[in-house]
What does this fold into?
Amino acid sequence: MRSQGRGSITRRPFYAAIYVGVGLGLVYGLWNPAVEVGDALAVAIFAAVILGQPVTGYAIGSYWALALPYAVTLFSVPAGYDASAAEEWEPLPIWWSVGVAATACALLMVPAIVLRRVREGQDD
It folds into this structure.
């Protein structure tokens, strides 16, 4: 199989591992209620997550990349509950919030994957 430059087939698992690793770092590191994040940093992290979805979709360029946000959801099940919301309402499991966000993340990947596949002339 010929090399397709950036994001070739041999690099796709590497990009997927980075995506899942960063996602789990966010879930277990920053979603922890003991970690205080300032407003400016929270906005920067949110922007990076939003911009990272199409970048990942384009880098991988395959429809299986749409499963990556759901893989992060699956691996975040042991993370427990979001205790920061316990004062106001019954806290939801962290994986529930990650799962809701996973759908938005997958939808943000779709246009980049389609663009990559159209540019490379892949039909499958």
Remarks:
- The chain has a mean pLDDT of 83.
- DSSP finds four helices and no strands in the chain.
- The radius of gyration is 16 Å.
